[in-house]
């Protein structure tokens, strides 16, 4: 038996037992879930995660087939390989779920995120913000005499880097969409 005391009802491999030195390393996975576009489906999918203590790093949902009334949920989550397999199996058992794809293991994929950043500043800070926006290929989507709103798309790391550079220049607020992802290739 492990020397680490376990809470009553919490197994050794539970998401709540994160300090077990013998536990497997966690991995980040991007899951694409095709579901019926109807009331309550998103709540059921999210309930699966919250009810079992799984974390969601990013979540995006949108209708992708208007005629077929289907939506695509893209979820970025973390867990051990066993936990990821359990999540996929449990998602597949939810009735309105049609397909579950683990883009992380199925091959190369393209992941992007969109962010809006409000930056307030005048003078040299304003000039520097515009210079950096040009380098990062961020677009100005709104401007006043005292502020900009930049739109930037790319990987999460690119958006994080841009936001960190904007902080000392007057970053006021940021809104992010979460990850949208597709597998590469014809299929």
UniProtKB/TrEMBL annotation:
Q: Main EC class of this protein?
A: transferase
Its EC number is 2.2.1.6
Q: Which reaction does it catalyse?
A: 2 pyruvate + H(+) = (2S)-2-acetolactate + CO2
What range(s) does the ACT domain occupy?
A: 30-105
Give the pathway annotation.
Amino-acid biosynthesis; L-isoleucine biosynthesis; L-isoleucine from 2-oxobutanoate: step 1/4; Amino-acid biosynthesis; L-valine biosynthesis; L-valine from pyruvate: step 1/4
| Short name of any one Pfam family annotated for the protein | ACT_AHAS_ss
Which keywords belong to this entry? Amino-acid biosynthesis, Branched-chain amino acid biosynthesis, Transferase
Its subunit composition reads: Dimer of large and small chains.
Described by its record, this protein's role is as follows: Catalyzes the conversion of 2 pyruvate molecules into acetolactate in the first common step of the biosynthetic pathway of the branched-amino acids such as leucine, isoleucine, and valine.
Q: What is this protein called?
A: Acetolactate synthase small subunit
Q: Which source organism does the UniProt entry give? A: Pseudoruegeria aquimaris
- Tell me the organism's taxonomic lineage: Bacteria, Pseudomonadati, Pseudomonadota, Alphaproteobacteria, Rhodobacterales
């Amino acid at each position: 038996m492990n020397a680490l005391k376990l809470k009553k009802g919490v197994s050794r491999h539970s998401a709540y037992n994160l300090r077990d030195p013998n536990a497997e390393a966690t991995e980040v996975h991007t899951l694409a879930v095709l579901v019926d576009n109807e009331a309550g489906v998103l709540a059921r999918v999210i309930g699966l995660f919250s009810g079992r203590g799984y974390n969601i790093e990013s979540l995006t949902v949108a209708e992708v087939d208007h005629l077929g009334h289907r939506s695509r949920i893209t979820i970025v989550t973390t867990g051990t390989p066993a936990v990821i397999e359990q999540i996929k199996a449990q998602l597949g058992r939810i009735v309105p779920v049609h397909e579950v794809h683990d883009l992380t293991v199925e091959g190369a994929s393209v992941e992007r995120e969109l962010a809006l950043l409000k930056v307030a500043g005048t003078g040299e800070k304003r000039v520097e913000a515009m210079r950096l926006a040009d380098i990062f290929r961020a677009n100005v989507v709104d401007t006043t005499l005292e502020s900009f709103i930049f739109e930037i798309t790319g990987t999460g790391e690119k958006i994080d880097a841009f936001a960190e550079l904007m902080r000392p220049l007057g970053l006021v607020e940021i809104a992010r969409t979460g990850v949208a992802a597709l597998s590469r290739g014809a299929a």
